[in-house]
Structures are given as C-alpha cells and as structure tokens.
Amino acid sequence: MGYNQKMFALGNKRSIIREIFEYSKIRSAEIGAENVFDFSLGNPSVPAPAEVNDTIRELLDTKDSVLLHGYTSAQGDANTRKIIADRINEKFGVGISPNLIYMTCGAAASLSICLKAVIEEGMGDECIVFAPFFTEYRVFVENAGGKLVVSKPMEKTFQIDVADFESKITPATKAVIINSPNNPSGVVYSEETVKALSEVLKRKSDEYGRVIYLIADGPYRELVYSGVEVPYLMNYYDNTLVCYSFSKSLSLPGERIGYIAVAPKMQDAQTIYLCVCGAGRSLGYVCAPSLFQQVIASCIDAKVNVEAYKENRDILYDNLTAYGYECVRPDGAFYLFVKALEEDAYKFYERAKAHELLVVPCDDFGVSGYVRVAYCTDRKKVVGALPAFEALAREYQQ
Ligand code: PLP
Questions:
Q1: Residues of the chain with pLDDT under 50
Q2: Ligand 1 pocket, 184 CB below 6 A?
Q3: DSSP element (H, E) containing 338
Q4: For position 304, what pLDDT does the model report?
C-alpha cells in the first residue's frame, strides 16, 4: 500500500473522547456554549500557579535567549534533574541520583519511552494494565511491540483484584502499568493493595527468573483530597519506573513537560536508564522543552488549587448519588466514574446527550456499563448541569 496501515488506522479513528469534544464544539455553536455541559476532556480547569507565569517572564527578561531556547542534554538539563531528584528524595527517601532522571514531553512520552525501553519486539512480551485504564496504554504498548493484557478490578471499589492480577502473569509478562490516582475512576490504590501487588510481583519474578517492570503512571499524584496518601511505588517494589508529568499537577498540559525516574534499587538500574535514553532517542523524545525545564527547576514546589476540584467532586458526588446514580467516591484526579443507568453505556451516553450532558462511555477503558464525568470544569457548569443529571435519572426511573 506504500504506507503504514497501523498508523493510518490510529490516525483515522479518533478516540471517543475526542469525538465527543468535537461534537461539543459544534453543539456549542448551535445552542450556545453555556447550554452544553461538556464533561468529556481531562483538560485542567484551574490555572497554573502565578509563580509559573512570573518565572516565565523573569526567565525571558534575564536569561540569555540563545541558551534559554537552545537544546539541553538529551536526557535533560543537569540542574533541573538535580532539583527533581532532591525533591523525590526529600519526600520519599529513595536515594535517587539525577543520573536516573530523564526529562520528557509529559507522561505520554514517559510511558512510550519506558515501554520501548523494556519490551523486546518480536519476543511475545506482555504488559498488564488494570481496568479501568487510560485508553492510550493500548496504543503505547502495541507500538513498543508488546501485547496488552487487562486485569479486571474489584467490583464496586475499583481497587486492584490481586488474585485476578496474579492469574494474568505468565512467563511472557514483561511490564505492568499502574495508574493512581486513576483515570477514569478517580480511585487511589490503597497501601494494602500496593503491598499485595508488590508481593505478587516479587514472587512471580523469582518464579520465572526474570524481572517484571512496574511502570507507575502518576500524572495525578498531587490531585488528591482530604489528606489521602498515594504510596510511592519505588518504596514497595524495586523494579519500578516512575512516569511523572506536570500536565495536571501544575496545569501545564500544553507545555509537554514531565520526567521518568528509574528506581535506584532496580536490578541493573544504570543499564535500564541507558535503555530509557536509547528509547527516548529512537522515539525522538530528546531535549524536553528547554524553557519549561527551567520553569520546573524554579517552580518545583508550586501548587495548583486542588480545593477547586474537590469542591466540584463534592457537588457532583453528593447530588448524583442523591438522584440515584451509583459511583465510587473518588479520592483523587478529576473524574467521576458513574454506573450507566442501562447496561449499554453508549446508549446511556446518547440519552444523556439529549439533555446536553456530554459524558464518556468507558468501554474502551476496559469496563463496560460506566461513563466518565471529567469535572475539571468551571463551577457554573458543574452546578448548571445538575438539573440535567436529575432529569436524566428521573427519565430512567419512570
Ligand atoms: N496517563 C494518564 C492516566 C492520563 O490521564 C494522561 C492524560 O490525561 C496521560 C498519562 C498523559 O499525560 P501528559 O499530558 O502528561 O502526556
């Protein structure tokens, strides 16, 4: 055919989230944006901290422009990596060196690099993910030459079903991706779950005599409510690669900035770090955006207003459950995972759409019968949508 069929298929078929987002724009033009309740996209709605913008201005005014906009080392600026390593050590005491940090263009790049670094194409390597899971995992795993294997969650709590997870591990298992706080459920995996998962991974690695890598996808780590703790995976399992991003924690998704941290206790940590560097090189993810590497070095302790998300969560969770919807109370991220009021989440989505409510059916996330409500939106929209959610529930009750 003269072109790559797989890439054509990926480019040709938009994700359901993007489809809905595009529909939202068309509908907004028809009836006015204020009348469309779009909960489709995970685009942060709280602004980046003021110090981010102040730092950008200061850098532009005071730094040598050629240096500021120039290439950094392929793995990232040494000072930025040191500052990140220092903060990780202060917070989690893992003793990581800057030489195990690799700067990337956000979590998507971090994941693609880590998978490419450990999966051996053509060897039948498998990667386990926990449903519900971020839909792009399938794309990233398959692009690295691996096969995606899905482990089902515990009913109602959406914690990991450790017995199911164990049953999915085979001699072909090369990597496991874990995402907490979770997109799309908002669930934070408990320490108990993390400990049990780590035990299984250690036991199975020993049994098969090969390392199983744990890839911790944590872009929502900072978005947690009421003091809930998110266990730092390296402290539980040595063979961990952390994929971090500032897209959500600093509301900078368009700036494409994040990092990979290779656990210092990982078997052959330096070798795996070099695999990360090689994978970054092969995928063209070298020299993450220079300006934003500098911004991160100055704003590593900055915080967004997480309380705004918590208030949205409380309003939606309290009201939706009062109307009769079932959903797990999310401890983090900015998603509500709501049981559809009929078996087919897609049909439910269509009926919600008739009320101008745009929610995402979650079949592609590996769980059928649920929709995702992204509440990273302004308060007026959240409150304004309540009568529509109520009317939709009444419609099913009649
Ligand atoms: N992982 C998860 C679970 C996400 O929800 C997202 C984005 O929404 C990403 C990774 C990609 O994040 P980034 O914008 O940093 O590439």
A1: none
A2: no
A3: strand 335-339
A4: 97
Q: Does any ligand 1 atom lie closer than 6 A to the CB of residue 186?
A: no
Residue 40 near ligand 1, beta carbon < 6 Å: no
Query: Cα angle at 218 between 286 and 128, to 5 degrees?
Result: 90
What confidence score (pLDDT) does residue 165 get? 98
Q: What is the pLDDT of residues 9-51, one digit of tens each?
A: 998 987 888 889 899 999 999 999 999 999 999 999 999 999 9
| Interval 281-327: pLDDT, tens | 999 999 999 999 999 999 999 999 999 999 999 999 999 999 999 99
Q: Which residue, by CA, sits nearest to atom 8 of ligand 1?
A: 42
Task: Report the distance separating Cα 103 and Cα 83, nearest Å.
Answer: 12
Q: What is the residue whose two structure tokens read 């409500």? A: 373
Which atom in ligand 1 lies closest to the alpha carbon of residue 179?
Answer: 3
Nearest CA to ligand 1 atom 5: 183
Domains of the chain: 5-49+304-397 (3.90.1150.10), 51-299 (3.40.640.10)
Q: How far is the CA of 107 from the centre of ligand 1 (A)?
A: 5
Instruction: Determine which residue's CA is closest to atom 12 belonging to ligand 1.
Output: 107
Burial (CB count <10 Å: 0-12, 13-18, 19+), residue 61: exposed
290 ligand 1 Cβ < 6 A:
no
Per-residue tokens: 356: 């101008």
pLDDT at position 359 is 97
At 57 the pLDDT is: 98
- Predicted TM-score (pTM) of this structure: 0.97
Crossing angle of helices 136-143/106-118, nearest 10°? Answer: 40
